[in-house]
Amino acid sequence: MSQGLYLSQKMSQQMVLAPQLQQSLALLQAPILELRAQVEQELQQNEMLEEVPVAELEQEERPGKEKDEAAGEPTPADDSPEPAEEGPEPAAEKDSADPVDDFQAEFEHLAQIDEQWRDHFSQAAGPNRASQEDEERRQFMFDSLVAGQSLQEMLLEQVRDAGLTAEELPVAEMIVGNMDERGYLAASLEELSASTGLPLSRFASALTVIQGFQPPGVGARDLGECLRLQLERAGRQDTLEYKIVTGHMEALGRRRFPEIARALNEDVVDVQEAADRIGHLEPHPGRAFLPDNDQYIIPEVFVQKVGEDWVVTLNNEQVPHLRISNHYKDVMARAETTPDVREYIRDKIRAGKFLIKSLHQRQQTIHNIATEIVKRQREFMEQGRAHLKPLTMNQVAEVVGVHETTVSRAVSGKYMETPHGVFEMKHFFTSGFTAADGQSVANTSIKDMVAEIIKGEDQFNPLSDDAIVKLLVAKGITIARRTVAKYRGELNILPSNLRRVY
């Protein structure tokens, strides 16, 4: 057969997510802080939308309104089909003051949604609504926050204040620029010397100056040097721990205390105590300057006990409340508005309606899922982490009436405030084991048991994984040794031979 290019046609089926569905899923998955950023972007792109300030919502509350107690959350009537687009009516049957395009039904529909959302935000917030004083206090806190100083910025300030000569200053700045986020020198002095053509001695001299800066241990090239610099700064050169970090780092990492004791002619107990003191040193001097230290968590869900029941409320104050601008409703109603402008406004209004509906569905979905979680984890709410029950997302999805992937998106990055602290909502989904009495025990509870067993063991004769398995079996929990080893590793607990105190 001859080779060449050919055109052919074929039919195939594939799933494609519509843009509106993608937007709805993105809103559902986004935590509150990301949600606000996404809504701000939509507000900039859709001029028909506007956000209603909380103060205005409070002023527009009407005490005569009653909420359907059986329904719980208000449900907008957005599920109704779009109103039919009608053309201009005959002049004989239409008053001259009426708009040319019959868009009044849709406006009334939007007004109904707007009223329901006002009730939703004013009533559903309940006891979590902050007072004006609380809002001012919170704003003062945010206004007081300043951007943290990076490690390189602080070191450069110390370089400029170190009294270096014009030749030494750029060398020191280059060394600082080659430090990683831990505070270690990422490039060797030989590499820096070769890349610049400057003498190696000049870089060695500048590094010695930098290693005297704050924080202690900065500018080290490996862990041993980092620990040694900290001990020297504290004047502990004559101590046993200084001897250990100077020539026995590998044995220290493997906790081979008898080997170190023989090499230094010291008692094993003294070596163990020195190793404990070394453990209090900072292996990463730049840790305090890492950006990950500045993390803010805003709970999406609050769980409170009212009487004998656990009540779930949402953090609605942080969710933007949107509405369609009345200005563009008026523009739409004017007879002189051209068909192109009318169609543009119509499309933007529909996009705004879908965003408002998606926000409401997001809140309703999270509320339904959180309610089911609290219902199934009632013992956790009453007694704490040790009573967490096994729970899968599929179990919650079947009750709520959504797909399992929807539950996964809804709890992703979301946090729940409980009487026992703030937990990520994914924390409540965990597999487990069946105890001898038929009760289900979550694997997180078993991890806590393992941690408690090891915490109370004899340090001179630590428990092996097999011994821990036997203790768990005595409590009615049958578990494999490799599972105990897995949980112990996740808890960052060393094996028994490395936990032994000599």
Task: Please give the structural blueprint.
Elements: H1 19-29, H2 32-45, E1 49-51, H3 54-59, H4 104-124, H5 132-144, H6 151-160, H7 168-177, H8 189-196, H9 200-210, H10 223-233, H11 240-247, H12 249-253, H13 257-264, H14 268-278, E2 301-306, E3 309-314, E4 322-324, H15 326-333, H16 339-376, H17 378-383, H18 393-400, H19 404-411, E5 415-418, E6 421-424, E7 432-434, E8 440-442, H20 443-455, H21 465-474, H22 481-490, H23 496-499
Parallel strand pairs: 2-5
Antiparallel strand pairs: 1-4, 2-3, 5-6, 7-8
Question: Helix coverage percent of residues?
Answer: 40-55%
Q: Provide the structure class.
A: alpha+beta
Largest sheet: 4 strands, mixed
Largest sheet, spatial ordering of strands? 3-2-5-6
Distance between the termini: 80 Å
Quaternary organisation of the protein chains: single chain
Describe it.
There is one protein chain. By secondary structure, the chain is of the alpha+beta class. Among the domains are: 139 residues, no CATH class; 68 residues, Arc Repressor Mutant, subunit A (Orthogonal Bundle), CATH 1.10.10. Helix content is 50%, strand content 6%. It is built from 23 helices and 8 strands. The strands form 3 sheets. Strands 3-2-5-6 form a 4-stranded mixed beta sheet, covered by helices on one side. Strands 1-4 form a two-stranded antiparallel sheet. Strands 7-8 form a two-stranded antiparallel sheet. A hairpin with a 5-residue loop joins strand 7 and strand 8. Helix 1 runs parallel beside helix 16 and helix 11 packs across helix 14. The longest helix is centred in the last third of the chain and has 38 residues. About 8% of the residues have low confidence.
